[in-house]
Amino acid sequence: MRTLPSILSLAAALFMAESLAAADGLLPPNQPIEQVVDQYLDARLKEEGITPAGPADDTNFIRRLTLDLAGRIPTVEETKAFVASTKPGKRLELVERLMNSPAFVRHQATEFDVMLMNGTRASVRAYLLTALAEKRSWDRIYRELMLPDEQDAKQKPASEFLRQRVRDLDKLTAEVSSIFFGVNVSCARCHDHPLVHDWKQDHFFGMKSFFSRTYESGGHLAEREFGVVKFKTTKGVERQARLMFLTGKVIETATLKEPPGGEKKSKKGRKDGSKNAPPPAPPQFSARTQLVNLSLEPGQRDFFARSIVNRLWHRLFGYGLVMPLDQMHSENPPSHPDLLDWLARDMVEHHYDIRRLIHGLVLSRAYARDSRWEKGDAPRASLFAVARVKPLTPMQLAVALRLAVNDPNGLPANLKPEEFDKRLQGLESGAGGMARLFEQPGDDFQVGVSEALLFSNSDRIRKELLSDGGDRLLGRLKQLKNPDEIVDLAMRTILSRPPHDEERKLLGDYLKQRADRAAEAQRQLVWALLTSTEFRFNY
Amino acid sequence: MALNRRFCGSPLHAVDRRAFLGTMAAGAAAFAADMTQLNVLQHPLLAGELKKQQKRCILLWLAGGASQLETWDPKPGATTGGPFRAIPTSVPGIHISELMPQMAKRMKHTCIIRSLNTRNGDHGGGAQLMMRGRRDEPNLKYPDLGAVLARELGRTDSQVPDYVSFYFATEGRGMAPGTAGFLGSRYAPMELYTGMIPENIRRLEGISDGDHKQRAALRDLLSKEFVRGRASHSLGSHGEAYQRVHGLMASEKLFDVSQESKKTRDMYGPTQFGEQVLVARRLVEAGVPFVRVGRAWWDSHGQNFETHQELVPELDHVMAALLDDLQQRGLLESTLVITLAEFGRTPGINPSLGRDHFATAWSSTLSGCGVKGGSVYGKTDAKGERVAEGEVGAAELFATIYRALGINHQKNYYVGSRPVPLTEPGTKAIKAVLA
Fold it and tell me: In chain B, how many domains are there?
């Protein structure tokens, strides 16, 4: 392993020298993503004279990676095996094992579902499970969500994306722009953006024009052939919007008028057909289809490509190349413009392959950095000099809790992968209920005191987490006599690492002082580990 | 560029309330440890400081929409006036409904705003609007009044909750949950839906107080080493949340009305609403910045007059008791009491002898801190169908509330690098209402 990367970096250095001649100033294409990431990030760090944090140790790395790829903490056996292995390519092997596991698909489906449906009352997770298991490209998924084929039973669940928003076209416009293009144009509804010259009212209403003909009728999604959006400028002048994309490109069409009489449906697109009526025929000119096609054309697809790159980067690094995620405009440049451009170009050239990007990002040195900054204030987040701490999502936390309170013997090393996944699924299916108790973290996530009260005083939580039945960690700890052994197993199961010396002493003493009430003391120990800040976050 | 330099987006550089409250915290540190001791106000110097600096707010939420014609803006004799008369109050020239004799005697504390036009007559939209002072945007969820006041008036390390909401009835509740919006869970309300004691505030049986505290201390110790070298707002909030647990558990006493004398309890009366408002007084006295008490079933589409005959005297009695109680304890100067709802009710009386939703010309009242008591702002026409003078909307009302509490209503929060003022830019508070 040691020689291969050095050969590659030599090659990369040669490429870099060559690239100074490259037309767009970017590093050449078709290189491992992880190398490009590190090159660009390291170059900036060097410019600023900052030495980044060193690599996270093995226990830290496997915990972070397992949470990010499979939505759970590693088992005691998984961690032991990984730490003990001396194989040079063990990190790559771990990445590939996790990405090939069914849990990867389930976790990514959950994450994408949040990205697409947060704030609505529905889910497209069932659709995403299929789409991601089949390794569908991101542009295909985009198309299937924006232009769902409701006749196909397998595709129909994807229609929830539009359905949940069809009654509020401003919301539909704003959310599609934000999610797929990284652009929040909703302020431009009322006025040109005061500082950002990119966003004028024309842009908001231009985008809205692509959606304004969409409506719901008799339980079916439908689209009119004709329609026009009118708006008032800040000066009170009434204007007619055109079908204009965020790039300013306009689609000329003769359909920009009110629907001719007879075709006209009710203005707000309310349900005006009975449920048994057949779906209205699709229009000959579909504005939404025009949008989807246009947004993927060369010269127009930068928004789409950069947005998905930025969002996946943000999910893994905890901080985007552009922040906030829906403020991709000229007054808010990326921290590493060339890197974002390179990754976007790579994404397009590889047909919007989500896995390829994830695979590359997690193999970078930058991803694998330690999250502790020893001396003084850490450098700003946009330098990626140190790994960022991320709060666990509700599902991650719920699944992690369930894994953490079970006897590790329930997931031994010699289990076949299918059996392992089966048991895992059992744990995951029970986690959904608990997950609903936690808040989905946004960018400035604050833990509320109600969470602390919940863990401190809720009977339900106590029952779920502190039982000491035979299949539970506490059940197993009860049988151990040596406090050191108890502390060791508890920490390896819950925090996925062995105790430091001071912790061994602290926790050992805690148990010894309560030797007459061993079971109770063990419960308190386990509680303190489960509610520790270390458990609550992905570091 | 310009945008980024003005605000780098780092939450560490956002308004730091801890620093802002630093002076107060320093002075009050000595006794702040257990704010649940209501007699903390006996220490004269600190009590004076505290009273001067700490504002709080009680919102009496008349869920369903109380009728302004049967409360604060009666039109006896008009075809829309209904059967009830108007009575003079202790302030010459001001008349209110005869259903409110006790408030009539105490008009000097209260300012009535009769000219609200908020345009939104549906429960969900109206509730959203009147709890936030504005509508949510697709990509931006605003914090409601309670969350903003929790942030502006609360303490970082508070041992009492910042925002408490009582809402037992089911009417309208799903449409008006308390929400901290983009301010985050730190400012989310402690909601009481069924019991007078907040959820999870009581230690479970089967664990002793000592064990409960010791395991918490162990948790803190373990976490201390972890956070070293890993500073972040999110990370910090986790530890802070746990540190507040025992103080909040101790504040359970605040929710217990039996701690009050019989005399006080009788003053508020035996109803659920009365008890909850009494608890609200206990909470604000102990430093809780905002309490909402929701009293439901005002939505009188039928039998409007019977409904109001029943509900208004209760409101009258309880509100009068609250104002008296606050005044006697020296708290009225620093406590703002608001009556508000999703909307008012139509002057037109429908065939079921009811009044329907009406947001075109209705009333709200502000009493106590920062307002000109004994006054009326705005006028409706003879039948109460339109505002005749001094029309204001939700934004102006909220601007006025913030100003009354000493908060700059144009101050900015930041969501990413986008400045979000507390009220829409250009909103003016109603000067005539402010003291």
Answer: 1
